[in-house]
């Protein structure tokens, strides 16, 4: 039972980082948090039961708790709090555009549960928080995947060995820079999952297993060449990349500019590339911009680094 003496009836500010799910070959099992962009939220523990959600951004997202990704994550959390006579008020300012492939829904649900838990004197473990935040992903995409919410909560690069039961492995990685280009089209994760083939050939599966194992080993060993060789997806990328303007050209030119490799961020349309150093990451950004400028696609770019902290809390 929650010890009511430790409840903190106050307001805190939250920064919830964007995440790059899949990291190319690890569909639904690998993900990493990045430092830019990040959603801003404020959360208050109140003496009134219930959840009140306000959005102060332009996206017109639902505010009923049962229809809002942060709301359903909090409801899942409250369901495990026992008898409750308190509630939460949340103000969300989405900086991560919904449908960008940068874990926008995950940032809302992860940010909400981390913030709420802090006000409950960290009653729940981080793994519990991942379980709650996955309810938001289920609402947003139809499937309870954890490859965005886990790195958003824990920071760094994470492997979801299993979601049922939840088995999370934190993966150390060498210093890397991340270049992201976000073409201004929306790809709904649910649609990008719908188009995937439901079966894979043994030949493709073997190639994919080799790449996932190689990528994880490359991160552990800080072996940039192994990381680079392993950033290959023979199963999901060939299907999804057709939804993204000039995907193949961007990938080819980024690698020619020195990127270790990269691919679709989450379910797209954002594309990300990893580089060893900032100069290369900026050259990669320029190559990407040149391509979209030439074909007239509007975009945003970010050159950033891996966020090792996860959701950040600030006292107001
Ligand atoms: N692993 C999920 C997918 C992430 O690729 O569908 C969605 O952001």
Report on this model:
There is one protein chain. The protein is an alpha+beta fold. Helix content is 36%, strand content 26%. The protein has 10 helices and 11 strands. Strand 8 and strand 9 form a beta hairpin. Helix 6 (202-221) runs antiparallel to helix 7. It is globular, with a radius of gyration of 19 Å. Bound molecules: L-homoserine. Residues 21-22, 27-28, 103, 145, 147-148, 189, 192-193, 266-267 line the site of L-homoserine.
Class derived from helix and strand content: alpha+beta
Shape: globular
Distinct ligands, ions and cofactors found in the model: L-homoserine
Give the tally of β-strands: 11
Strand content: 25-35%
Count of DSSP-assigned helices: 10
Q: Describe the main β-sheet briefly.
A: 7 strands, mixed
Pattern of helices and strands: EEEHEHHHEEEHHHHHEEHEE
Poorly predicted runs of 5 or more residues: none
Tell me the Rg in angstroms. Answer: 19 Å
* Share in helix: 25-40%
Distance between the termini: 27 Å
Overall residue-averaged pLDDT value:
96
What features would you highlight for this structure?
alpha+beta, 316 residues, 4-stranded antiparallel β-sheet, single chain
Short structural summary:
Helix content is 36%, strand content 26%. The chain has 316 residues and is α+β, with helices and mostly antiparallel strands.
Question: How would you summarize the topology of this molecule?
Answer:
Blueprint: E1 11-21, E2 30-46, E3 50-55, H1 69-78, E4 87-93, H2 104-119, H3 126-141, H4 149-154, E5 157-163, E6 166-171, E7 177-183, H5 189-194, H6 202-221, H7 224-230, H8 237-240, H9 247-256, E8 261-264, E9 271-275, H10 278-295, E10 299-305, E11 312-315
Parallel strand pairs: 3-4
Antiparallel strand pairs: 1-2, 1-11, 2-4, 2-5, 5-6, 7-9, 7-10, 8-9
Helix pairs in contact: 1-2, 1-3, 2-3, 6-7, 9-10
Bound molecules: L-homoserine.
The site of L-homoserine (HSE) has 13 residues, from helix 5.
């Amino acid at each position: 039972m929650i010890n009511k003496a430790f409840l903190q009836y106050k307001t805190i500010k939250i920064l919830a980082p964007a995440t790059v799910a899949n990291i190319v070959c690890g569909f639904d099992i690998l993900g990493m948090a990045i430092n830019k962009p990040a959603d801003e939220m404020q959360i208050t523990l109140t003496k009134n039961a219930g959840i009140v959600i306000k959005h102060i951004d332009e996206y017109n997202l639902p505010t009923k708790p049962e229809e809002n990704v942060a709301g359903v994550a909090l409801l899942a959390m409250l369901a495990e709090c026992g008898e409750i006579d308190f509630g939460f008020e949340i103000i969300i300012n989405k900086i991560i555009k919904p449908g960008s492939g940068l874990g926008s829904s995950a940032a809302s649900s992860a940010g909400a549960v981390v913030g709420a838990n802090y006000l409950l004197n960290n009653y729940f473990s981080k793994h519990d928080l991942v379980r709650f935040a996955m309810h938001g992903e289920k609402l947003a995409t139809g499937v309870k995947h954890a490859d965005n919410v886990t790195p958003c909560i824990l920071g760094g690069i994470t492997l979801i060995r299993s979601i049922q039961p939840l088995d999370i492995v934190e993966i150390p990685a060498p210093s890397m820079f991340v270049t992201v280009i976000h073409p201004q089209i929306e790809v709904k994760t649910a649609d990008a999952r719908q188009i995937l083939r439901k079966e894979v050939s043994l030949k493709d599966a073997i190639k994919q297993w080799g790449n996932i194992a190689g990528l994880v080993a490359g991160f552990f060993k800080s072996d940039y060449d192994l990381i680079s060789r392993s950033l290959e997806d023979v199963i999901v990328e060939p299907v999804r990349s057709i939804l993204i303007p000039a995907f193949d050209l961007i990938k080819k030119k980024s690698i020619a500019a020195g990127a270790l490799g990269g691919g679709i961020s989450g379910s797209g349309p954002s594309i990300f590339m990893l580089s060893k150093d900032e100069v290369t990451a900026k050259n990669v950004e320029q190559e990407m911009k040149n391509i979209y400028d030439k074909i007239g696609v509007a975009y945003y770019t970010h050159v950033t680094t891996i966020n090792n902290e996860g959701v950040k809390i600030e006292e107001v």
